[in-house]
Q: What sequence folds into this?
């Protein structure tokens, strides 16, 4: 009895200690110095998209560290505050509130999941914190008339038709079978693709859904086998995509596979192995190896973080670049004093012709990037990154 | 429409049996523990998952050492199976010792909650070990069996399409059947098996008959977990890629299978597993056709749960079970 | 130590003074040091201190009311972390209400329900569908979105719809017991989530996986409720109503029926407790609290999608109930508060702190071990430790202990007035001898 009581006390004590620690954390790290400018990143650092979320954070971090000197000359200290939204809208909103509460955070680089970006951006709007997304492609992110939401990548209603165009005109597919993963991203992309493909005259043989996290796709693939399409389109993330391709090839489905930007990760090749051949993806991220700065970026990234880049790493990098450019403009417009959040927000929206490593950025009135492109890659062998095929601009 | 369904039946049957075999062996673990302790071991799915990870880890290490190519794949598989089975068996025994034994006389709710707790714990521990090693918790193991066989079902009747089977499926099915038969023999023909049946029937009387109840329960957990872990390795071989969360959904479906067949009944678990696999594969392949596009393959989980609920409502003792009246 | 505690318990004045000092210190520190999460948490825990005092119930409620309604918002408002604190407080309120609902089902009636989040989802979607243009997809009449004033009506509607779903869930599972019930309810929870995730064909009711955005905020007398600080008050009112209702139920006939069913169903039936009605009432009432909070959640989040209603949430609420103490109202409130704050604030802050240490190079923890990802591990550990060592929870349910002497004296007084009507025992004894 005594043991149990003391154990309970110990547990309560450790809970209390944890809370006190948390308290120290937030109050200790906050200096009243007014020349600290913090930029927050909110990406999924755990869960099914952790690879990409981590890559975005590291890319952003790299850019921030490179720009530290320049801002020091202007009299400001830059700091990165990473947050993990776990792909959960509730977490995203709670973190957004924390971000809003910290007055020295001037901008947010994030999110990756559109389902998290949408409610979190409602909070950012209230606090006038600009958010620039390196990866959100769902249409609704920027169509709500919010002044704080921007993105440097293309939207799904541009990616879907680009994919459909490639499928119908280049790959000459007349009968297409569509599989999607029943998430906001997968369904949105698949629907956009379906509409565009039908407009171009292709026949959609099936529109089936799978569940995220499952491993056995034989049921859906049996349908594919019996329907005999010319192309299979998958709207979803690399974890399921890789398995789908692998199992399809094992069933003898040798027609080309087309996927979206959620499949653009090294884990895809790891899962699918050799079966990845004859797969194409549309991606919002360009090929870093084609440009000099791109190759330099890959080397610096690898040297610093001991990891290979993902395609989204460079987008995290460019997004941070856009954000910092916006902040720099705001500082200069404010006579080299610390700008308010509203000024930063407007300055970020007003960024024109920013040339990053891979993207050129000019925001339009909705926060979409005028220069956003969709890239098409093909996997001719089991290697990541894939081979560049084509690109489509607005 | 009927034509289309009939055409795909051989393939659906084969895929269903593959899935069903996995469900069946996991269900065995559930049913054994429930028969003896009247406890749903929620953590069993995670033991299966741990087996998959341990097996994959061993395979990766051995591949790195170059042993895999030197030895025929079958021998490699059997070695890994045995090793993993022993390790997961010990894991299961350990869990029983630490978390279930102290609660043997507690009201039914508490061990269930502990089981959920252990399930979460195992998931997260495996997750961060995998993440520490790889940076990502999705692990892909080396491919052992890659060939395809083809069954010329069209020669039987022109309605059927040809079906193709992967060699790994044959291995999985054969191993699962061997395990099931082995278990059946063990339970029905050996002394320990008799002891297990005695404890399952009436724990107190069995202990009066000089059966060491604690030891029997430990052995039950060992065998159940060993089987679960071995199935994990088979799963990893069959599908290639694993993550820490496969245990949960599979465990739930395997439990459905166990209930379907009659909980506490070994043969019922096997039957239930195979049946559930077939039904699920059939639904996944044909639901769109049957419902005219209203329900698609994404409803196949709902299908499995619905079966569970219907079985529990109308025949709670399952297909092969005997109705148990509650005595006051 | 124990004697000191006993003396403390007797002396109301000491308690009062101590409480006053504690509250003033913590609220002052929160006022001054805005960013200090610790001060905020300590102010909240003053309520815990209040619980252990010996005042009359009415006094306790009054003091709690003052702290929650005036002190907390006022002291937190002196700075920018205001909304963040209110957000946490609002979420704590929502989870407390849901935990109280589950407490009725699991704690009082003994029906292990692992799919409880489904009722929350039902409430959230009810408001979400009608407060946006979504409803125009399938409703032939009416103009959507409905205006913000309808929010108040929808709290009631959400309550009833969720109760209806509760009854629908309860009817099939009446005969199922114990562990099987857990699995069946888990299945139901998942079924509801999958259905909501897929209900965009053939008729688009829930917009499937895309979720329903831009939910109309509530409006009262022309003011729109946009900020968490405003939602805080709504949540507080509903929470008070919930606590009041639960306490009334607990000490009523239905409450005792629940406890009887929990202990032994067959014995309860033999004593005349209507089993079907009791169980259905438990499900319905538990569900209705969730439904109400679902409506509030949808309005606050302004976005409803199926990923907020996973199995992990159901288990989280279960952990809250177990942690606090099954069947005990104050325990469940404490459990819910601790878990939510742990999940939302403490883990995130500890991770940020570790990240800061990381970036300044003090010592680095590999990403895989970062505390915010360890949520499941911590849940699992909590569940196991509490189930093994303290199955009754932090603040166990107290059975109403009747003072035997008082009862005897009371009945003796009654009997004096009823002397004539006493049954004639001698006659009965004679009859039995035969």
A:
């Amino acid at each position: 009895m005594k043991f149990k009581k003391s154990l309970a006390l110990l547990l309560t004590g450790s809970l209390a200690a944890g809370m006190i620690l948390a308290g120290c954390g937030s109050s200790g790290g906050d200096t009243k110095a007014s020349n600290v400018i913090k930029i927050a990143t909110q990406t999924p650092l755990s869960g099914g998209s952790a690879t990409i979320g981590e890559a975005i954070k590291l890319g952003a971090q790299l850019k921030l560290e490179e720009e530290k000197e320049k801002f020091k000359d202007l009299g400001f200290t830059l700091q990165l505050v990473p947050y993990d939204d776990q792909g959960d809208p509730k977490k995203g909103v709670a973190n957004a509130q924390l971000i809003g509460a910290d007055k020295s955070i001037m901008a947010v680089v994030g999110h990756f999941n559109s389902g998290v970006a949408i409610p979190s951006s409602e909070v950012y709007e209230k606090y006038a914190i600009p958010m620039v997304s390196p990866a959100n492609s769902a249409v609704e992110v920027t169509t709500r008339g919010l002044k704080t939401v921007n993105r440097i990548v293309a939207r799904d209603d541009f990616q879907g038709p680009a994919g459909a165009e490639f499928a119908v005109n280049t790959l000459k597919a007349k009968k297409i079978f569509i599989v999607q993963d029943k998430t906001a991203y997968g369904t949105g992309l698949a629907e956009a693709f379906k509409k565009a493909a039908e407009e171009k005259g292709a026949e959609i043989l099936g529109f089936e859904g799978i569940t995220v996290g499952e491993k056995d796709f034989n049921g859906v693939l049996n349908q594919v086998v019996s329907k005999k399409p010319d192309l299979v389109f998958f709207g979803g993330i690399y974890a399921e995509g890789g398995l789908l391709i692998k199992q399809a090839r094992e069933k003898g489905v040798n027609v080309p596979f087309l996927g979206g930007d959620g499949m653009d990760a090294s884990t895809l090749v790891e899962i699918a192995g050799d079966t990845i051949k004859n797969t194409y993806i549309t991606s919002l991220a360009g090929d870093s190896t084609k440009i000099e700065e791109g190759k330099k970026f890959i080397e610096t990234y690898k040297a610093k973080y001991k990891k290979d880049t993902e395609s989204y790493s460079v987008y995290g990098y460019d997004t941070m670049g856009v954000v910092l450019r916006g902040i720099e403009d705001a500082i200069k417009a404010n006579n080299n004093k610390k700008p308010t959040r509203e000024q930063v927000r407007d300055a970020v929206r007003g960024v024109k012709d920013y040339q990053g490593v891979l993207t050129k950025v000019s925001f339009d009135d909705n926060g979409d990037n005028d220069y956003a492109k969709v890239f098409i890659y093909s996997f001719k062998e089991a290697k990541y990154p894939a081979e560049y095929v084509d690109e489509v601009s607005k | 429409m009927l034509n289309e369904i009939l055409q795909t039946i051989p393939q659906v049957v084969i895929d269903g049996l593959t899935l069903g075999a996995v469900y069946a062996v996991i269900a065995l673990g559930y049913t054994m523990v429930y028969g003896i302790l009247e406890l749903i071991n929620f953590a069993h799915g995670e033991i299966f998952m741990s087996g998959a990870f341990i097996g994959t880890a061993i395979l990766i290490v051995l591949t790195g050492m170059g042993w895999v190519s030197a030895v025929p794949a079958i021998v490699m598989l059997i070695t890994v199976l045995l090793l993993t089975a022993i390790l997961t068996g010990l894991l299961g025994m350990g869990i029983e010792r630490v978390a279930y034994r102290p609660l043997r006389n507690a009201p039914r709710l508490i061990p269930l909650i502990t089981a959920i707790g252990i399930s979460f714990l195992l998931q997260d521990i495996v997750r961060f070990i995998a993440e520490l090693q790889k940076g990502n918790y999705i692990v892909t193991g080396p491919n052992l069996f890659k060939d395809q066989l083809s069954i010329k079902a069209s020669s039987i009747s022109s309605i059927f399409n040809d079906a193709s089977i992967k060699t790994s499926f044959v291995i999985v099915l054969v191993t699962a059947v061997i395990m099931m038969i082995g278990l059946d023999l063990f339970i029905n023909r050996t002394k320990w098996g008799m002891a297990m049946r005695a404890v399952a029937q009436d724990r107190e009387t069995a202990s009066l008959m000089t059966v060491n109840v604690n030891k029997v329960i430990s052995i039950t957990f060992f065998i159940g977990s060993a089987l679960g872990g071995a199935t994990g390795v088979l799963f990893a071989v069959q599908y290639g890629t694993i993550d820490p969360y496969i245990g949960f959904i599979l465990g739930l479906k395997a439990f459905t299978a166990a209930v379907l067949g009659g909980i506490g009944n070994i043969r019922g678990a096997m039957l239930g597993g195979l049946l559930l696999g077939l039904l699920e594969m059939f639904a996944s392949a044909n639901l769109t056709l049957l419902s005219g596009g209203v329900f698609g393959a994404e409803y196949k989980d709902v299908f499995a749960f619905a079966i569970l609920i219907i079985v529990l409502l109308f025949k709670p003792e399952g297909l092969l079970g005997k109705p148990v009246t509650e005595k006051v | 130590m124990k004697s000191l505690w006993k003396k403390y318990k007797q002396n109301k004045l000491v308690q009062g003074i101590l409480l006053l000092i504690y509250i003033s210190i913590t609220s002052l520190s929160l006022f001054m040091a805005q960013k200090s999460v610790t001060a905020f948490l300590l102010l909240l825990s003053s309520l815990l201190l209040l619980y252990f005092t010996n005042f009359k119930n009415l006094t306790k409620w009054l003091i709690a009311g003052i702290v929650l309604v005036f002190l907390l918002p006022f002291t937190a408002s002196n700075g920018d972390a205001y909304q963040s604190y209110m957000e946490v407080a609002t979420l704590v309120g929502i989870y407390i209400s849901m935990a109280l609902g589950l407490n009725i089902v699991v704690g009082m009636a003994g029906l292990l329900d692992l799919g409880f989040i489904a009722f929350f989802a039902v409430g959230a979607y009810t408001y979400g569908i009608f407060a946006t243009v979504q409803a125009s997809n399938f409703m032939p009449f009416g103009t959507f979105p409905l205006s913000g004033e309808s929010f108040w009506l929808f709290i009631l509607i959400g309550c009833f719809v969720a109760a209806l779903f509760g009854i629908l869930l309860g009817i099939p599972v009446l005969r199922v017991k114990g562990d099987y019930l857990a699995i069946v309810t888990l299945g139901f929870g998942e079924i509801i989530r999958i259905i909501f995730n897929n209900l965009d064909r053939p008729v688009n009711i829930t917009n499937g996986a895309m979720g329903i955005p831009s939910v109309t905020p509530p409006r009262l007398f022309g003011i729109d409720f946009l900020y968490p600080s405003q939602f805080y008050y709504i949540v507080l009112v509903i929470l008070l109503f919930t606590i009041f209702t639960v306490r009334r139920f607990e000490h009523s006939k239905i409450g005792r029926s629940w406890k009887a069913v929990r202990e032994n169903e067959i014995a309860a039936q033999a004593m005349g407790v209507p089993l079907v009605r009791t169980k259905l009432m438990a499900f319905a009432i538990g569900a209705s609290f969730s439904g109400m909070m679902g409506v509030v959640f949808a309005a606050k989040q302004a976005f409803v999608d199926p990923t907020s209603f996973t199995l992990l949430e159901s288990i989280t609420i279960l952990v809250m109930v177990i942690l606090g103490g099954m069947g005990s109202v104050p325990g469940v409130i404490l459990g819910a508060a601790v878990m939510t704050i742990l999940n939302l604030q403490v883990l995130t802050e500890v991770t940020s702190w570790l990240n800061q240490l990381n970036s300044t190079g003090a010592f680095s923890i590999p990403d895989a071990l970062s505390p915010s990802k360890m949520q499941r591990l911590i849940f699992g550990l909590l569940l196991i430790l509490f189930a093994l060592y303290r199955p009754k929870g932090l603040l166990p349910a107290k059975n109403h202990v009747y003072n035997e002497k008082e009862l005897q004296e009371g009945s003796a007084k009654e009997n004096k007035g009823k002397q004539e009507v006493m049954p004639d025992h001698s006659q009965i004894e004679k009859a039995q001898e035969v």
In short: Chain A has two domains: 33-154+291-363, 157-283+375-393.
